[in-house]
Specification:
127 residues, alpha+beta, 2 helices, 28% strand
């Protein structure tokens, strides 16, 4: 089955051995995004809410480069270093997504790359 790697300079460059996304038969698998500014490759300042907004901006950029949009996401996985931040994630996501909302899981993890407090990966379907 053919796979196409997705790359955009509008999202942070991979910090490991992975693609920003892969497209396989109309399904796009977006790698996890942390709140890195694509230009500085540093975690954005401004608090946790701003970090979640940056993660979604990064996902939006990769989705766009794949030919899709955030609205095309069918599944999200949210990784948090503190589940007490879950409500903030919900508040930010309520501004970005409309019904029917994507399927979603949220898990607390011990640590994330670069000391991030949130990471989100996604699966979307493009026509």
């Amino acid at each position: 089955m053919p796979r196409r790697a997705v790359h955009t300079d509008a999202a942070p460059q991979a910090i490991g051995t992975y693609s920003q996304a892969l497209v396989v038969d109309g399904t796009v698998y977006l790698s996890g995004q942390i709140p890195l500014d694509p230009e500085s490759m540093q975690i954005v300042a401004g608090g946790f809410r701003r970090e979640v907004e940056q993660v979604l901006a990064n996902l939006r950029a990769v989705a766009s480069a794949s030919g899709g949009r955030l609205e095309d996401i069918v599944k999200l996985t949210v990784y948090l270093t503190d589940l007490n931040d879950f409500e903030t994630v919900n508040e930010v996501m309520a501004r970005e997504f409309r019904k029917p909302y994507p399927a979603r899981a949220a898990v607390q993890v011990a640590a994330l790359p670069r000391g991030a407090r949130v990471e989100i990966d996604a699966i979307l379907v493009v026509d």
